[in-house]
Amino acid sequence: MVVVEAGRRDAGRALAVVAGALALTLTGTAATHAGPERPDPRAAPAYWTGTWEAAASGTAAPLPGASVRNVVHTSAGGTAVRVRVSNRLGTLPLVLGAATVARQEPNAPRSANALRGTMRTLTFGGREKVTVPAGEDVVSDAVTLRVPAAANLLVSLHTPGDSGPATYHRDALRTGFVAMNGNRTADPGGGAYRATTGSWYYVTGVDVRRPQAERGAGAVVALGDSLTDGSGSTPNTDRRWPDRLAERLRALPAARRAGVLNAGVAGNRLLREGRGPSALARFDADVLSRTGVRTLIVLEGINDIKGTPEQTDPAALGAAYRELVRRAHARGIRVVGATLTPFGGHGSHTEARERVRRSVNRLIRTGGLFDAVADFDAVVRDPLRPERMRPAYDPGDHLHFNDAGMRALADSIDLDDLDLGR
């Protein structure tokens, strides 16, 4: 189906999300198709961490009376889940008539069918229906569901009426499904979901409950623009660089297998509103409010340099990086800064902008801004033409990265620079 962007909210509203989201985060029991969750007094202590994220990037036309089945890919597994629903950029209260979560039928990334026996009803404070105020998020009650790492979940949401502009993540690189008429959230089969979408509607996060043995790992957030969001990579394959980083982490001992949360937004800027609120404005909602975050990787700034109006002062970007680091450190989060990758050959590239990019990269490498540096520029640039990326990593637009380029970025990250516990 065609997704129509209906407008953007003032970036400053994103700063109000955290208090509302945290206040509404609920960890109690919840009704499911398998019966209510009851804690086992013999069970070992467990903890929660984020396994998936999609940052709100704007708004789309609402789908009154429809059910949307979002497909999301986990980075870490667990024994229970809870789901974050967002009306962060909406202008009216969002009324959800019903919501469910299930595992997708295996080996069928373009299927709306749920794996048999995994459909669960989501509740919010014990109620199946919830109203989310404009500018806020809510988090569902916990439901028991065994979720493997690197699995696809179906998060289905029904909007019975017109709740105004729908908060969404435009570029999912993942096929989702829409049933245009009625509440079909509990359908195990996908027959009613005859329309498709390339965006995620309303759902912006999934947490999993993990065993005590994995407590030290926490989560890593990747904050960025389209290079992190995955533009240029193959849809429906989960080959963005944060996906590949999650794959690397899953090979570690259990206590170090962090979840990886992708807070990339195509078109995003560090200092100004672009597509979605600026990185500074959305930082609390997309990083600090997430569950179990121990490390942040920042790859932001290229759209400030090449955008309109363009940022010509490297010191302004440096000051913004310092502010992000200050706010992260206040929460005990370690920050890794990534150098800005080359875009020579792209229509927006100029010699003046190239000089700014190189100056910013010198600041990232030598300015002591971050706890560690991931030198993405050094990994992907063409040795003969350092203003350009290597041809093997170029999907053709000279800005984004293909699957091989995404893998190269992720593989260059020193895992010892991440706070993964021991």
TrEMBL record:
Domain SGNH hydrolase-type esterase: 222-408
Family matches, as Pfam families: Lipase_GDSL_2 (PF13472)
Keyword Cell division: no
Gene3D superfamilies: SGNH hydrolase
InterPro entries: GDSL_Rv0518-like, SGNH_hydro, SGNH_hydro_sf
Organism, as annotated: Streptomyces apricus
Keyword Repeat: no
Any GO molecular function: hydrolase activity
Protein keywords: Hydrolase
Protein name as catalogued: SGNH/GDSL hydrolase family protein
